[in-house]
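Please predict the structure of the following assembly.
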Amino acid sequence: MNALELQGLHKRFGLTEVIRGTDLAVRDGERLALIGPNGAGKSTLFALVSGQLAPDAGHIRLHGRELAGRPPHDAARAGLGRSFQVSNLFGGLSVQDNLRVAAMWSLGQRLSLTSVLRRHTGLQRRVQEMLDLLELGHRADTLARELSYAEQRLLEIGLTAAGGARCLLLDEPTSGMSRAETQRVIALVRRLSAGRTLVMIEHDMNVVFDLADRVAVLVYGQVIVVDTPEVVRQHPEVRAAYLGRHAAQQAGHA
Amino acid sequence: MSVRRILPWAMVVLALMFAASAAGGFVVQLATQVLVLWCFGLSYQLLFGRTGLLSFGHAVSFGLAAFGTAHAVRSLAGVPVYELLPLAGAAVGLGCGVLLGYPVTRRSGIAFAMVTLGLGELVAACFLMFPGFFGGEAGVTLQRTRVPSMLGLDLGQGLPQLAVTAAWTLAVLGVVQGLARTPFGLATLAVRENAQRIEFLGFRTATVRWVSMLVASTLAGVAGALSALAYEIVTVDAVSMHMSANVLLMTVIGGLAHPLGPLVGALFLTVMQSVVSDWTRAWLFYYGFVFVVLVWLAPEGITGLWQAARRQRPSARTVATVLIFALLLVVFVETAYQLALGEPTRLPGWRHFGPVALQALLWSSGLAVAAMLVRGLRRSEAPA
């Protein structure tokens, strides 16, 4: 069973076609890393799946439900959570309120004008769980904009997962982080992705090999290979895309 | 809303009422006006302060509700429902929110502001087209005593009328405070902070904005009804751009975040309009100047300044600078007015100055004010 299926996706900006017939099937419960050189269209692909952009053609199915061209809130309601490459938080709200907003909808606390948020035990429990997972309990009342860079990145992942989405798209969760902080993110992503489907854009190959069950390589808007990390690492086209033709040929000779 | 939370506010209102009744009819009138404006400002706080929707047409709900209430009074003559009349205003406000709010809240930011501006002008322009409803140039008058009180209050008197206004304003305050604790309340803040991100969390921002507009319009409708009942006349001014601008200025001056913000702003406006205007023709200048300076240097408004001063006491030097600046500004403005209008200002002692002395005073105070302004602005831009 596939959690997420992309079929023949196309997206053009002016004269430039960024996504050129992308096909991808993500299995339910797997952790898939999406890699590819700069400008390959990875973030555009995330924008299409999460409803930020509408594709020019093609299908996006989440658990069998068509999402192509649907707005972001529909994708979120269908069980998709996405994080952003640049932290995209509610700067003037406290950490716990950030998580509360993120979890509210899926727990049925939508636009009620009468219920009191802090009396909703399910929501309180979820927020506490997330604070524990993120190890941000001591920062619960800090405004998001006053967090350190690494803490903001953690909260960004927290917002994505707090609503209980079954499929998570993480856009470079470890970018700009130190080695120790990266380890912290890897552990967090591993725990959060248990029982869910994960698609992750990542440049740090150590993180990719550490976390991913499979790796998809996107080059010029097309997925050229999807396979286990070991196979992908040896794949000549991947080496060419990443290291240039010449290096790939040399590696082939060696 | 717990009793403990509402109590301090109730005491504020009671103190206002007590002071008003002790001082007599004029002050009762002023207190009523302050409460009506506070109520109106609370609804605007929800829209602009909480949801981030800068509306230039908030008076539409206020004004149409005031007209609606005036007509309700005429058709309900003899029916003892006086204390419930603001519900008629609320209904009209809600209607405005439903009909006008829906298209308007499809947009945010500058587009929203522009559309509300246009819509406000459109509604105000209707008053000559529908003289039956708006009463033409003269407006609609009403006699509130024609609708008897449910509680047997003598509504011909100012004080019972003030009590009804106070009760409704407190109710609106309770609603606004209560809403802040609901999922809707948090969603509005989230929309203000980051309208893009909340879409990825399942919310439709247009819907959050619309609901916010519905609530704000309904509460503005209550304020409109209170104003109609207090003044017993509603003119086109109630729906005008002028009224929309007033609620914006007043709320920003008082502070967008604190529940007392609109009260402080309303007090400030009322004191300027009714007391300072007796004393100087430049009152509107001072009002505008305070607004500009606050937006520039203390966007949290007077209540924000007060809270900041409680956290960290301003130095004696800062206080002295502000006082000297205010003094110089008053000297400059009053002298300028005196020279321009050729009539003596009411500042004590000024009438003895000759034309040369006045010119000298004008230039010296003007230059000093300009120098202090430039210096203050430079400092406010310097890295902390």
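Chain B touches chain A through 26 residues (CB under 8 Å). Chain B has two domains: 3-283, 314-381.
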